[in-house]
Write a structure and sequence with these properties.
The chain is an all-alpha fold and 118 residues long. It has a domain of 72 residues. It contains five helices and no strands. The longest helix has 25 residues. The protein starts with a helix and ends in an 8-residue tail after the last helix.
Length: 118
């Protein structure tokens, strides 16, 4: 039964039309990740607080995306594009979450005590 269901799902997968991600959205994602990673690094090295670093870096990337879209919408031909704002925010979220997971993991190595035995 599992094989039949899998074959049916695979056969219908070709009929689905996927959404493509534009190059501009990829650039927005990358810009959000770079802004977020830089902010996370600066805030964490200053405060040693992972929560502050996470929220400040995420907020900075969202604010940068919002500011760019507001600036773009003030031009004559352009309009406010929520997709680009979401892409920038998701880039920031990805970088913030990744750094939050992996920064500060080696505390047990720093606090390990060495026992000397004669």
């Amino acid at each position: 039964m599992k094989i039949i269901v899998t074959l049916i799902l695979v056969s219908f997968a070709g009929l689905c039309s996927a959404q493509s991600i534009s190059t501009d959205d990829k650039l927005h994602f990358g810009a959000g990740a770079i802004i977020s990673a830089t902010t996370y690094t600066v805030v964490y090295t200053t405060t040693k607080n992972k929560k502050k670093a996470f929220w400040y870096s995420l907020g900075t990337s969202v604010l940068a995306g919002l500011a760019k879209e507001v600036y773009d919408s003030s031009k004559e031909i352009n309009r406010f594009d929520t997709g680009e704002l979401v892409a920038t925010s998701l880039g920031g979220l990805t970088a913030s979450a990744t750094l939050s997971l992996f920064v500060g993991k080696n505390k047990s190595k720093r606090n390990a005590k060495i026992a000397l035995v004669n």
